[in-house]
Amino acid sequence: MAPTKITLQTNQETDHENMSDCKSIAGNATTRNIVDLLLVITIIVLLGVAAPIIRGDYCDIDECTSGNHSCPTKAHCINAIGSYTCECFHGYHGSQCLDVDECKLGIHTCDEHANCTNTMGSYKCTCHVG
Ligand SMILES: [Ca+2]
Question: Key word Disulfide bond present in the record (predicted)?
Answer without folding.
Answer: yes
